[in-house]
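Reminder to self: tokens first, then the designed residues, so the page reads top to bottom the way the pipeline ran.
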């Protein structure tokens, strides 16, 4: 019984986290995309120097 309750609370916490993350991504999706591009460019440079 107790384990089931703990599991439910864990699931609800994950759902809340997912909602918050999706909201944040929706608000700053453009900035996140540009930041990922920059990061990928840095990693590409490192890969070429190896």
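Designed residues (50 positions):
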């Amino acid at each position: 019984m107790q384990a089931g309750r703990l599991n439910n609370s864990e699931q609800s916490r994950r759902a809340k986290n997912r909602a918050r993350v999706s909201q944040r991504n929706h608000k700053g999706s453009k900035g996140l995309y540009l930041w990922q591009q920059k990061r990928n460019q840095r990693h590409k440079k490192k890969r070429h120097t190896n």
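The two ends are 56 Å apart (CA to CA).
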